[in-house]
From TrEMBL:
GO BP term, example: base-excision repair
Descriptive protein name: Fpg/Nei family DNA glycosylase
Record key words, sorted: DNA damage, DNA repair, DNA-binding, Glycosidase, Hydrolase, Lyase, Metal-binding, Multifunctional enzyme, Zinc, Zinc-finger
PANTHER family cross-referenced by the UniProt entry: FORMAMIDOPYRIMIDINE-DNA GLYCOSYLASE (PTHR22993:SF9)
Length: 288
């Protein structure tokens, strides 16, 4: 799933490649992805692209007084195409959900595709005059890169739950997902199962610093990358996430995994749990 660093990089990519262009034809290949109908997506056509933005994990492109907002969900992505086909795509065929064509001042006619792999289609597209009209944006907590340490500590004090759950709750803190939460907790040397109520002030401060460091470093690596390379850049920067069975680069222990429902997370026992191996989440307890 694209998280704060990748979505920030995609917003910057749109600022550099789409701002100044005029929106051409908009092709809808998956009608189920479009969550708003007034204004219609066709209302974007003919408008100048004037900006791009990010709200948590939501990505937006501004065209005049309208915003095209998308949430890429778990398997969505934005693909930039320098020479797109002039033939409209067939609805329901392949991963394509939406294609937006452009006319640039230089006379080029690029486009971007919003795509989604897999059979569970969760990618969402909205056309609104105010980004806060998107329900998911209206519910967001403060941005993870904008929240101050006192407010961060207050958020955790008010959330009596496992820390892994708390920092991926978008209503508490916007922008962090499964991957970067693994990296943040590893950097802060905190167990994913630790309760927010039991964290000391020192640990909360360390967690805040780890969050800032991990996200800032990831944004630095991501911004400026071609959109097609962002997924690989994200993977290359991970120390524990999606590295089950590999060696922890900090202590040399084996990276472990906890699986539950459709997801999993990774951690280092030596760095984070005092050497304890966490039981599979489906067992709902720690191994003694």
């Amino acid at each position: 799933m694209p998280e704060l660093p990748e979505v920030e990089a995609l917003a910057q990519f749109l600022r550099e490649h789409a701002v100044g262009a005029v929106v051409g034809r908009v092709d809808v290949a998956a009608l189920s992805a479009v969550k708003t109908f007034e204004p219609a997506v066709t209302a974007l056509s003919g408008r100048d692209v004037t900006g791009a933005g990010r709200w948590g994990k939501f990505l937006g492109m501004q065209a005049g007084e309208l915003w095209l907002i998308t949430h890429l969900s778990r398997a969505g992505w934005l693909r930039w195409i320098d020479e797109p086909s002039a033939t409209p795509p067939k609805p329901g065929k392949g991963p394509l959900a939406l294609r937006v064509h452009f006319f640039t001042p230089e006379g080029a006619t690029p486009a971007f595709d919003l795509t989604e792999a897999g059979t569970k289609k969760r990618l969402a597209v909205y056309v609104v005059t105010d980004p806060k009209a998107v329900p998911g944006i209206a519910r967001l907590g403060p941005d993870a890169l904008e929240v101050g340490e006192p407010e961060f500590a207050e958020i955790l004090r008010g959330a009596s739950q496992r820390i892994k759950t708390a920092i991926v709750d978008q209503s508490l803190l916007a922008g962090i997902g499964n991957a970067y939460s693994d990296e943040i907790l590893h950097t802060a040397r905190i167990s994913p199962f630790a309760n927010t109520k039991t964290l000391s002030e020192e640990k909360v401060s360390e967690l805040y610093g780890a969050m800032r460091t991990v996200l800032t470093d990831a944004v630095t690596r991501s911004v400026g990358q071609d959109a097609a390379r962002l997924k690989g850049e994200k993977r290359s920067g991970m120390r524990v996430h999606a590295r089950t069975g590999e060696t922890c680069p900090v202590c040399g222990d084996t990276v472990r995994e906890v699986s539950y429902a459709e997801r999993s997370f990774q951690y280092c026992p030596t760095c984070q749990t005092g050497g304890k191996i966490l039981a599979d989440r489906r067992m709902s307890r720690l191994l003694k």
